[in-house]
Amino acid sequence: MQIQAAQLKDVPQIVKLIKVILEEMELPALHELSNTQLTQLFEKTFASPEYQGQLANLIVAKDQDEVLGVMFGYIGQNEQALFDVFKRYYSELSIPKTTVIFSDAEADKDEWYLNSLCVSEAHRGQGIGTQLLNYLPTIGEQAHTHEIGLLVDFENPQAAKLYQRVGFKNERVQVVAGHHYYHLKKQV
Question: Across the beta sheet with 2-5, what order do the strands follow?
């Protein structure tokens, strides 16, 4: 297994994993878009230069060509610019201009924010999430920051334990899309 920056050919597998997280978040846009629109929107957005390294990091755990897990994040000050990339594809996909994918700020401006971490269901419990998290110091160094932040849902104590096991500490409670999260931080 390798931990590496995602390639364009990985995007469809990445989107399948990210959609698991989106469903847990219960975002209103999930009820406004068809499954095809949502999939195509995320595939186009994640294939954009901004998501392929200009403003964000898409990191995958791969075995051969199979994406076993994905980690997606960015420096907090880039969050709104990344959210705005989605709008670029609305017209092409017949998505109403008023559609909002993400409305609430999640990241602190000065942290590298771990927006998403997901391991495929078939590969959970094999330490892949931990291996992805162990890559965070490399990302912090590349991004010139020593602080990594993330949100973990109150209803996901297993994930909270994983993050705490690798050194994250609870900083505060934050509400995003009506859900309560712990905002955890780690110095790298």
Answer: 2-5, 56-63, 66-75, 112-119, 147-153, 179-187, 169-176
